[in-house]
Amino acid sequence: MKKTVLFLMNGMGIEQKNSYNIYSSELMPNLDRFIREHFFTSISSSASDYEKGYQLFSIDTLQPLSYPHIENILESNLMTKNPKFNQFHQSVFQCQGNIHFFCFVEEYKTFDSIKQMLALLDKEHQKKFYLHFVMTQKDTSQYANVRKMIARFQYELPSNVVVGFILGIELFENEAMINELNDFIRMFYNGIGEKWKEIDVKFNSLSSMGIPPNKAKAFYVNNGFLIGENDLLFFMNFQNYDCSRFIHSLSKPSIYIANPINSQKITYYSLFPLANTEDTVYLYDNVTSDISIAKACAQTGTTSLILTAKDSLPTINYMCNGLSNVSDNHIKYVLTDNGILFNRDQMNMLLNDPNYQIIIIDHRIDQIEDENTLKEKLRKIDENMGMIAELCSGQYPLLISSLFGLKKDLLVQDGSKQIVDFSVGIPVVLIDATYDKKKYRLGFGSTYSLFTTALKFVHPELHIKSLLRKKGFIESVFMKK
To answer: Is there a contact between 89 and 79 (Cβ–Cβ < 8 Å)?
Structure first.
């Protein structure tokens, strides 16, 4: 059986014209030389971060699998067949307070699901519902889309359903925003805080200050949302967001927050499981993917070895197993925190180990916040790339690429913050002397194509897409390089 090595420099992409200049041939001489001397193309990636990068790489979609799952349940009238939903329905019917829906604003399908859910829960419009919108978008350009989605809720829902809060997901998940979370909890208890009926004006203000939706502080649109001890909270989550800090802070508010109610009587439900939250009743189990790197390896008798840092391992394992935390014998891991990637003897031993047919070397640059550290990291990645290329030379195909290109503010040498934008295209280099550049070329594709290409090198008989393609006659004549 053959072998393929995939060298990932996650976060690296093709630098855009408006980007602060980071990449240079002097900084990464090996990459520059490989681009000139070997097969090269660029591919697309709709992923904007490390987690989404591995999701697209493994299951070929960024769409939460929970969306079509719930859509099918609602269209097939199967929701009421679920005992957990019926328990939830009973809790809504018996609720003596307000019902708070925390809606994670991701795409337009969210509206249809919530509308149908409300119709099932309260056909006669007898209960008071507050919809609180949690924004997840990471770019200020997304405020326009968020506004359009919220507008559908405002204009198409019955009068007993009222828009309450709007806030960014980072208040829940980012420990550094604890003060903003406490401000939100205080607002929830006493009703004092920012109020904006004209959402467009607020969004324009946030955008002008460079604050993306996911980092927006909480503000409210309509009065009357105060939390009561008989209230019910429902998280309309299609992904495993971590709301544990919010639930804990709401249940046990700071001593600085007036708390005249018995917060232990508040009831919590969620659509799917919430991360780090065991006590909240959820209506449906997580949905796993029918396709994944683990399943593809199992079906083809392939074993992949992924070399990565300890803090990246949970994300990779979850995505490569089809959005599941299970382990699989067809995917093995080696932790790289001890510097093993730069140890020539150890890497030579791993690359030549007959137990592994696909070896994935995982680097990432997206966690870096300043120019000097980023450039030093890229130098080390280029150095490692050169060593791996030497070890693979004449033996194994080497694919060099990335799963996404970062776009972020970076602290540069003069003390200012500049945007580094690698987000549009991803470079792909193939080093394999067995293929003649006069007869073959690298085509276009997505990051999922990286995996299928690697698998095709191992199993040439498979009828799967590969970035490496044989040139047609005209290409052979006019595109000899």
So the answer is: no
Q: Which residues does 299 contact at the CB level (< 8 Å), separation at least 6?
A: none
Q: Which amino acid is at 60?
A: D
What gap in Å lies between CA 329 and CA 387, rounded to an integer? 28
CB atoms within 10 A of CB 203: 23
DSSP letter, residue 61: -
Whether the CB-CB separation of 80 and 117 falls below 8 Å is answered with no
pLDDT, tens digit, 9 for 90 and up, residues 133-190: 999 998 888 999 999 888 888 788 888 999 999 999 999 999 999 999 999 999 999 8
Mean pLDDT of the chain: 91
pLDDT at 259: 66
DSSP class per residue in 182-237? HHHHHHHHH--S-B-S-HHHHHHHHHHTT--GGGPPPEESSS-----TT-EEEEE-
* CB distance 350 to 334 below 8 Å: yes
- Phi and psi at 134, nearest 5°, equal -105, 115
How many other C-beta atoms lie within 10 A of the C-beta of residue 215?
Answer: 20
Cα dihedral: 36, 38, 43, 45 (round 10): -90
Whole-angstrom distance, CA of residue 8 vs CA of residue 360:
7
Pairing of strands 440-442, 468-470: antiparallel
β-pairing, 99-105 with 39-43? unpaired
Nearest-angstrom CA–CA distance, 92 and 86: 10
Cβ-contact 384, 29 below 8 angstroms: no
Q: Helix, strand, coil shares of the chain as percentages rounded to 5?
A: 40, 20, 40
Q: What is the mean pLDDT of residues 96-112?
A: 87
pLDDT tens track for 440-458? 899 988 899 999 999 999 9
Nearest to 394 by CA among 348, 445, 433, 347: 433
